[in-house]
């Protein structure tokens, strides 16, 4: 059992639980940041597993179950408490569809042979969809803007569709191959995110991944 990787996965689960608690207390800023930190821990557990003699079947299943909570349940509760006031039924239906799509996405990932995911996944990763929703809410809170519930729920349904689609999205290895070519730009980008406007830069990063990743993954596959 890889203790370091499982510890990082557990920290991601802790962030997801914290997000749910903060959402129920209507502290949307902390609830959103908890999901963002969960994205970071989730991104580290895979490299940690490979660094320590590879991943195990237990680690894979544990990671998927945690992702269902952190990037399925937590964003759904955050989204519902954020916009439910005037849209009870629509918010419930849209966010249930989002939750169901995230679980389907993770189940499909577990059943896909590893050799078919060398540099990309099929369907938008739940990590990215959860991170995008959290960063969108952070932008709204930062600038004291109340988003249109219809716009927000349309975004939720769009992300749900992408998660169960057959679109190819770069995994961490494929993303690293791309970023290695632009490491200087990426470092500047990250520095600006930390210092000046992290909410907007996070949203931009997730958005660019969603828009550009399928094209880059298809181009890599054709080589």
Describe this entry's structure for a reader.
The longest helix has 27 residues, at 57-83. Strands 1-2 form a two-stranded antiparallel ribbon. The chain has 223 residues and is mostly helical. The protein has one domain (3-222): CDP-alcohol phosphotransferase transmembrane (TM) domain (Four Helix Bundle (Hemerythrin (Met), subunit A), Up-down Bundle), CATH 1.20.120. It is globular. The mean pLDDT is 85. It is built from nine helices and two strands, in the order H-H-H-H-E-H-H-E-H-H-H.
The largest sheet has its strands arranged as 1-2
Strand content: under 5%
The CATH topology is Four Helix Bundle (Hemerythrin (Met), subunit A)
Kindly, what is the distance between the CA atoms of the first and last residues, rounded to a whole number of angstroms? Answer: 36 Å
* Count of helical stretches: 9
